[in-house]
Amino acid sequence: MRVSEVLKAITKNTILIYASAPSYPHGTIDPIEELARIALRYSFCLHVDACLGGFVLPFARHLKSISIPNFDFQIEGVTTISVDTHKYGCAQKGSSVLLYHSNILRQYQYTSVTDWSGGLYISPSQPGSRSGGLIAQTWAALLYNGYNGYQSAAHKILLASKYFREQISNIPGLELLGADVTMVVAWAAKNPKLNIYMINDILSSMGWELSVLHAPPALHLCITSANIGSLPSLIADLRASVADSFEHQNNSSSGMAPIYGLGNALPDRNLVGEMLKEIQDILLHNS
Predict the structure, then answer these.
(1) Residue 60 CB: number of other CB atoms within 10 A?
(2) At what angle are helices 196-205 and 231-247 packed, to 10 degrees?
(3) Each residue of 171-196: pLDDT tens digit?
(4) What global pTM score does this model have?
C-alpha cells in the first residue's frame, strides 16, 4: 500500500484505513506504523487484516534471520485486528477472531433489539447464532498447539519461506514479488518470452496445485507445516517447467493459461465476471 495514495484518498467521509499483515497475493506487510500516524492525525480507525499472518508473524519476531515489522496493538492507532483461527491456527473452517483495542469500540459490533415481541435480544454480531461445536473445536486446537506449538511451527514455516524465495530467485526467467519474508511466496515471469500461466499448466500436469494471480500475472504458494517437505521437489519441477515453457513458448495451452490470459486482456471487467459465472455453472453441473 502506498501511503501517498492513502493520503490522496482521504475525504470527510473516511472512517477507517484497512491494511494487511500480510496481503494474500504477494505476502507483503503494509506500512502499518505510517498508516497509524495518519489514522491518529485524522482521528479515524485503522484495521489490520492479519487473518493470514496472525498465528505466524507474532511467534517469530525474535528470529534473527528474518525481520518482522510491527503491525499490532503495540502501535498506537491500530484499533482492530482480524485473525483467522481456521488458517494457521489449525482450527476448522468457519472460525475467526476479531480483536478490539478497547471494549468501547467492540460494543459497536453488537446487535441489540429492544422492541421485538419475542423479548429482548442481544448478539455479539449481526449474523446471530453460531455453532457451539465449532467454537469448542477451535478452543481445543488453541489448547492443543499452545504458544510453544505455534512458535515452533512459525519458525519452520518462515525459514522454509526464506529458503523457497532464495531458490526461486536463482531460476532464470522468474522474479519474486514482494520483499517481505512471510508465509506467502509469489513469483512472476521476468522474461517476456515466458508465460507464467503456461508454467502453471505444466506444474498442474505434474500434480501441483498453486494459486494463480493476475494484475500482474503470477503464481504463489502459502507455505504450511504440511508442505514444507515438498519444497525441494517443487523447486525441481518449477525449474523443469520453466525450461519446458521456454522450449514450447509458441504452442497453445489447453489448461488455464488461455482463460487467465483472456481475463487479463479484457478491459471490460463485467464481461470477465460473466465468464467466471459460466465456468462456475460448468463446475456445478459436472460435480
Answers:
(1) 22
(2) 120
(3) 999 999 999 999 999 999 999 989 99
(4) 0.87
User: Which residue stretches of 107-230 are H helix?
Assistant: 132-169, 196-205
Give the DSSP H/E element, type plus range, for residue 49: strand 45-49
Four-point Cα dihedral 231, 236, 239, 240, nearest 10: -130
Q: Is 78 in a helix, a strand, or coil?
A: coil
CATH 3.40.920.10 fits domain 3-107: no
The β-bridge partners of 211 are 220
pLDDT tens sequence across 54-79: 999 999 988 888 999 999 999 999 99
Q: Are 256 and 200 in contact (CB under 8 A)?
A: yes
Q: Taking the domains of the chain in order of start, what are their residue ranges?
A: 3-107, 149-286
83-132 pLDDT, tens digit per residue, is 999 999 999 998 999 999 999 999 999 999 999 999 999 988 887 777 89
CATH 3.40.50.11270, domain 149-286, yes or no: no
Identify residue 86 by its one-letter amino acid code.
Answer: H
Cβ–Cβ < 8 Å for 227, 207:
no
Q: Are 168 and 153 in contact (CB under 8 A)?
A: no
User: Residue 24: helix, strand or coil by DSSP?
Assistant: coil
